[in-house]
Amino acid sequence: GDDRVVWRSKGQGWIGKNKVMAVALGRSVEDEARPNLAQLSNHLVGDCGLLFTNSSEEDTLTYFRDYEVKDYARSGAEATERVMVPKGPIPQFAHSMEPYVRKLGLPTVLREGGVWFAVLLCIVNIPFVIGSVMMLD
């Protein structure tokens, strides 16, 4: 599920501009919101967020260490499973798109007024570079 839903009952998370979070926590002992929060302000560098939780440190670290987001492949990504692309027509592509599909590195030909894969294509755990994926929707 979504991190926000999973952690909603377990604590509070903040993501924002580091300087704004530092002001909210307090930059010094005199203006800190709660005791010792000003110490966190010095650690707000780069991309970061804060998670305040009642869960144990071990449970929290285990959750985020094991957390994995499924995402679409990007240029140069390795195939994570075997993909078989059969030889034959590709009806979703108009004949005018064939040069673009070929430019992506796919073995295509124009036949019978449409785009066809020229050979059986098997992609298995190799980097497959695609310059643009907008055509594959």
Tell me the span between the first and last alpha carbons.
Answer: 25 Å
Characterize the main sheet: 3 strands, antiparallel
Number of helices: 5
Count of beta strands: 7
Computed over alpha carbons, the radius of gyration is 25 Å
The topology string of helices and strands comes to HEHHEHEEHEEE
Helix content: 10-25%
Characterize the quaternary organization of these chains: single chain
Q: Record the strand order, biggest sheet.
A: 4-6-5
Low-confidence stretches: 130-137
Secondary-structure-based class equals alpha+beta
Question: Could you explain how this protein is built, in words?
Answer:
The chain has 137 residues and is of the alpha+beta class. 25% of the residues lie in helices and 19% in strands. It is built from five helices and seven strands, in the order H-E-H-H-E-H-E-E-H-E-E-E. The strands form three sheets. A three-stranded antiparallel sheet has the order 4-6-5. It has a two-stranded antiparallel ribbon with strand order 1-2. It has a two-stranded antiparallel sheet with strand order 3-7. A hairpin with a 2-residue loop joins strand 5 and strand 6. The chain is elongated. The protein starts with a helix and ends in a 14-residue tail after the last strand. 2% of the residues are buried. The model is unreliable at 130-137 (pLDDT under 50).
